[in-house]
Amino acid sequence: TIKRRNHGRNKKGRGHVKFIRCDNCYQACPKDKAIKRFQIRPMVEAAALRDMSDASVYESYAIPKVYLKAQYCVGCAIHNKIVRVRSRINRRIRTPPPRPRFNKDGKKVTAPVKAAA
User: Fold this and answer.
1) Which residues, including other chains, have CB under 8 Å from residue 42's CB and lie 6 or more apart?
2) What is the pLDDT of residue 2?
3) In 61-89, which positions are buried (b, 16+ CB within 10 angstroms) versus exposed (e)?
4) Please, are residues 32 and 11 in contact by the beta-carbon 8 Å criterion?
5) Quick one: which of 43, 77, 79, 106 has the fewest CB in 10 Å?
6) Residue (of 13, 31, 23) closest to 79 by Cα position
7) Count of C-beta atoms within a 10 Å radius of residue 36
8) How far apart are CA 15 and CA 68, in angstroms?
9) What is the pLDDT of residue 14?
């Protein structure tokens, strides 16, 4: 019996894959098995951004962003709720979950649901 059709990896046809270290616990984990997330955040949080803009000489200054690729082992990804444990039937669903959409006012917009044929 197999639990997942890809055996929990993304390795097809490669004999060996380099190991990476988990960003949380530093456990060695194969690169294709690790859960990877790309974070883009501003260097300054929103609370301090207003104070900086008030004190700044320049009217419009674009604060740089931090681009961070986080790589987690399976255990840490589950513990930190980056991924969830799914039931045996739901494990087969390969489509990503719908992402929340926002309009220009910052309000959440619900996407139209497609009718099953």
Assistant:
1) 49, 63, 64, 65, 66
2) 87
3) eeeeeeeeebbbbbebbeeeeeeeeeeee
4) yes
5) 106
6) 23
7) 14
8) 29
9) 92
What pLDDT does 16 receive?
95
pLDDT by residue (tens digit) across 8-39? 999 999 999 999 999 999 999 999 999 999 99
Query: Can you give the pLDDT at residue 52?
Result: 86
Q: CA-to-CA distance for 26 and 22, rounded, in angstroms? A: 4
Single-letter code of the amino acid located at 37: R
